[in-house]
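== Sequence and structure of one protein ==
=== Format: two labelled lines per protein ===
==== Data for this protein ====
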Amino acid sequence: MTVIKAALLGFGTVGQGVYEAIQTHSEQLKKLLGASVSVEAVLVKDITKERPGVPRELLTDNFNDILSIPDLQIVFEAIVGVEPALGYLKQSIAKGCHIVTANKVLFAQHGNSLQQEASRKGVTVGFEATTAGGAPVIRTIKELLRVNKISRIEGILNGTSNYILTLMREENYTFEAALKLSQEKGYAEADPENDVEGYDALNKLLILSELAFGEKPDLSVSGVEGITRITLEDIQKAKKAGQRYRHLVSAEMTEHGVAASIKPVLLSEDHPLYSVDGVLNAVAITASLAGTVTIKGAGAGKLPTASAMIEDAAALSGKLQTVQPLSARSLFAG
């Protein structure tokens, strides 16, 4: 049986999800791609750490081991932060590999240059997982742009903030109590600043804006407002008025360029994002022919994000060359 060789960079929550998804959905991938997908290596920081379900001989802490894999075609990147991930992706592209990333910080800053490098090498960059987890926002925008002009994007792009606001409205939690529970459930990090102050949403908006409008808004971090100032009293007052607070990102093409904002907004029942609760993400896209198109789905978590990355890989059907299998499990042994 022929195979398509893949490597995985990073084995945190997202990396684990990608590995599990490839194993559990092997038959679907085989039908889509015409060959089995084989994870040939997993790049990790600590090679001595036990990782149940992953053969130890697949693990390496040396990126050169990844580059040395014969006929490697796909590199899944799930590392936090810009470096060393950016260098790894550039080297992967130079090797002729398609890349699939979930790294929103990296892609917000360097996505355009990575896509240009990939185009010169005749490979692709999948980045669906950078914006809204399992909600196919990137794919939808690309499809709309084939025949539409997009004039506006509005979205709830951070599941942690949305979950906190939902708890405050439905359970009368204070912000502090809702944040604590979200941390206990694993929705928020020990340091939740990126989520609750809006910086995570900023990176995602930059990615969507560049895709939809061909440029990023002039929106500095100082212009981003999170949800930390919203009190339980604010939530209750809005609830009585039939309104709901949402942490909303918006970008709109104007004659002066892209105008954007990231801030808490009160929505009424007639707004398409009014009913989006919990950890869900959603984006409402206003297009010239299609009107307003709303996409909603799980915005974070191991499997929704992994799903987005695997879908990017599945979209490569017809662009991949199958090879006869040669197990990589002996590559790093000893």
